[in-house]
Structures are given as C-alpha cells and as structure tokens.
Amino acid sequence: MKNNLEKSIYVSQPYLPDIDEFIPYLRQIWDSKELTNNGPFHREFENKLAEFLGVPCISVFANGTLALITAIKVLGISGEVITTPYSFVATANSLVWNNIKPVFVDVESEFCTLDPEKILASVTSKTSAILPVHVYGNPCNIERIAEIAEVNGLKVIYDAAHAFGVNYKEKSICNYGDISILSFHATKMFNTMEGGAIICKDSQTKRQIDHLKNFGFVNETDVVAFGINSKMNEIQAALGILQLKNYDIVVEKRRGITQKYREGLKEIEGITFLPEAKEANSNYSYFPVFVDEKIYGISRDQLYNKLITKGIYGRRYFYPLINEYTVYKNSPYSCKSELPIAKRASESVICLPIFPELDLKDVDYIINCFNDFSK
Ligand code: T4K
Fold first, then answer.
1. How far apart are CA 67 and CA 49, in angstroms?
2. CA gap 87, 99 in Å, rounded
C-alpha cells in the first residue's frame, strides 16, 4: 500500500485564515505601532471572545501555560492540589511553578477524566484545590467534583485547554469551577499561533488577573502583586478576532472527519474509541483510539511505528503519564499510588490526524492502514 498523496500526514495542522484577510489587521498594527500592552485588538478580542463563548470575564494570555500558572496564583492556592497524570505536562508543571505539590490520582475509564471517588480518597489537610482536565474536550464529572470541592472547602481550576467552544448543559464549560483556562496553541482547534485565556466569574478577579499578567502593575507608579509578563500581543489578538469568524467551518470539517473515523474503525477488532460526550457538544478537537494488542494483533507502539512508515504521524497523547517523566520520578512530587486506568490508557492510545484541511481521502487511507495492519 502506498500513501497515494505522497505526503506526511501530521496529527494536527493549524487552521489559518486567508492571508489577504489578515493583511489589513497587520497594516493597522504597523501604522499605529501599538504592538502589545492591552492594545485595541487585545481589548476587542477579549470582548468578542467573552460574547462568543458566553462567559462573564475573560483575560487573554501569551499561551495556555502562563494562563494556568496565573490562574493558580490568583486563587492563592498552596500546599497540595489533586490532579490528573493523564494530560500534557503543562498541567502539573503549572502547580510546581507555584510551589505546589501535584497529587496524581487515577482517571475513570470512560473518558479518561479524573475519577471523583479517587479525588475524594486523596483529600488531606494539605489539599487546597482540584485541577482536573477536560481531556480531549470531554467534560469531567463536573457535578461530583463540585460536591467534593464544596464539602472539603477546595477550589476547582479546570484545565480546559482542549475544550474551546464546548458547552455543557447548555452553558460554556468554562463557566464551571472557580476558574478555567484555555489554550490557543497552533495545534489546538482554535489558534492564535500561541495563546491562551483565563475565564473567571467576576470583574474583581479579572482585574487581579490583568495585574498579574502585567508584572503586577496597577498604574504607572505602583505594583500590587508579584506579577509576571504573560500578555498576549496585538498580532495574536488580531488573528484571534479573525479566527472567530471561521470557527463554525473548522468545527464542521472536524465533525466530518470524526464521523468518518468512527464509521471506518468501528468494525476493526481491538481498536476502540471514546463514546460521544453526554450533555455536551463536541468540538472534535482530538480523535484518540485505543489499541488492545491481544485482539488487534500488534502492540500500540508497533502500530504507531507502522503508521509512520506510511506517512501517518499520530501522537501518543498522553504517553507517558506525567508522573512517569524523569523530573517527576526523581522529585518530592513522585507518585506512590498505582494509577492502573490512566496507565492502561496511556499505553494503548494513539491520537489520529484531525484538522480542517485533512482530506477525507486521507482519512480513508488511514482507516485502510488500520485494516491492513490488523492480524
Ligand atoms: N493543558 C493541556 C491539557 C494541554 O494539552 C496543553 C498544551 C496545555 C495545558 C498548555 O497550553 P499551551 O501553553 O501549549 O498553550 C502540543 C502543543 O505544543 C501543546 O500546546 C499541547 N497542549 C499538546 C497536547 O500538544 P507537541 O509537542 O505534540 O507539538 P508538536 O510541535 O509536536 O506539534 C504536533 C504536530 O502539529 C506537528 O507534528 C506538526 C503540527 N504542527 C505543529 C506546530 C507547532 C504544525 O503543523 N504547525 C505548528 O506550528 O505539543
């Protein structure tokens, strides 16, 4: 079998608007020479995003990681925070950057999000918050996490890096918990090249966040917080404004690809994928599949490497687990508990290519490879 298109197919490819549409924005930036520090595009992007997502307050950032670090900081969290090992390393690193110990607990098997009962079992007198991830854009068990947080006096910070545009029970998923963050990285379904945001509930918290992302400055002559520089620049913000216009097209293309994968892979024994989320719309941001070696005939890693020989570059999001990285193993944050469900998911997952310009013929080609490789 040959890659009929003679090209590499990557897990992701950024969606970009027509460059001619972007030039007038760039010209305005060049003419005004306002490049950063809460410029006009930055302000417009925040307003448009808040309206688009249906959230009360949003503050945009240079990237999702700085948004997460700042979200943790603004809530004044300390001690220990319960989080998931099945995520991108930025989730736990953001805690460590705040001198907080990440306590890893296992995920549930249906959607690979944090298992609420495992959270409950790990609460100690040092626990101050829960940091769950809506991994692949699927909602965590929001109600149960809220109950556990309330009973134990804990804050909830949602890492919603994958969940742009997802509504749960008819409101933005970012409206749940005390605070949420988004990522607009190039590989995300909505991108500003690099970028991110914090969603919070009131304007006073937004003001504190805005101080924190600008070194702590409250005015020209005073600094009121130990802030950082994590501001989004005008080029990122202008791109974001333009990207919002094409969002529906992006989702629709991804929906078509997801449907084709689901249809084409469902009969292949030993390959499974996640069910559709309950009471939430999908943003189709990732398409993870799980390989059962005993049934499919070859291991996940053999399949991953065979796909590469055919020009198909999936990614093992999220392998290894965060607690298995060298820096975590050899640190005070090393994890003593068994995390069997997260481990099984991590050792069997491959995220398949999904992006708006992925041709449906390429999706067929990928599905054919899965059929051919099964034993
Ligand atoms: N929380 C969670 C749950 C996250 O998943 C992430 C980021 C964060 C927090 C932090 O948000 P940010 O600070 O990143 O805003 C990628 C991304 O770098 C990362 O943003 C993302 N999660 C993570 C899941 O994936 P890599 O190392 O896989 O990216 P990379 O560069 O290998 O890209 C994958 C493929 O995408 C490439 O093979 C080709 C294509 N690509 C990539 C880039 C960057 C392009 O075509 N163009 C590009 O510019 O981490």
1. 15
2. 19
Among candidate residues 170, 173, 91, 182, the one with its CA nearest the CA of residue 129: 91
* Contact status, residue 11 vs residue 210, Cβ threshold 8 Å: no
- Taking the CA atoms of residue 199, residue 205, residue 206 and residue 212 in that order, the dihedral angle to the nearest 10 degrees is -110
Amino acid at 295: I
Mean pLDDT, all residues of the chain: 97
Which H or E run includes 104?
strand 101-104
Q: Cβ(63) to ligand 1 under 6 A?
A: yes
Centre of ligand 1 from the C-alpha of residue 152, in Å: 34
Cα angle value 80/81/85 (rounded, 5°) = 120
Q: What percent of the chain has pLDDT over 90?
A: 97
Distance CA 92, CA 113 (A): 15
Domains of the chain: 9-13+247-373 (3.90.1150.10), 19-245 (3.40.640.10)
Q: Does the C-beta of 315 come closer than 6 Å to ligand 1? A: yes
Ligand 1 nearest-atom number relative to CA 63: 15
| Tokens describing residue 271 | 């390959």
Q: Can you give the pTM of this predicted structure?
A: 0.97
CA separation for the pair 196, 183 (Å, rounded): 4
Greatest alpha-carbon span in the chain = 70
Residue 258, Cβ density class (10 Å: 0-12 exposed, 13-18 middle, ≥19 buried): buried
At 156-193, the pLDDT tens digits run 999 999 999 999 999 999 999 999 999 999 999 999 99
Ligand 1 closest atom vs CA 196: 15
Residue type, 134: H
Distance 159 CA to ligand 1 centre (A): 15
- Please give the distance, rounded to the nearest whole angstrom, from the Cα atom of residue 256 to the centre of ligand 1: 22
Q: Is 243 in the pocket of ligand 1 (CB under 6 A)?
A: no
Residue 12 CA: nearest ligand 1 atom is 36
Report the separation in Å between the CA atom of 186 and the middle of ligand 1, taken as the mean of its atom positions: 7
**Distance (Å, rounded) from C-alpha 257 to C-alpha 56?**
32
| Shortest-distance Cα residue to atom 30 of ligand 1 | 187
User: What does the pLDDT look like over 34-78, one tens digit per residue?
Assistant: 999 999 999 999 999 999 999 999 999 999 999 999 999 999 999
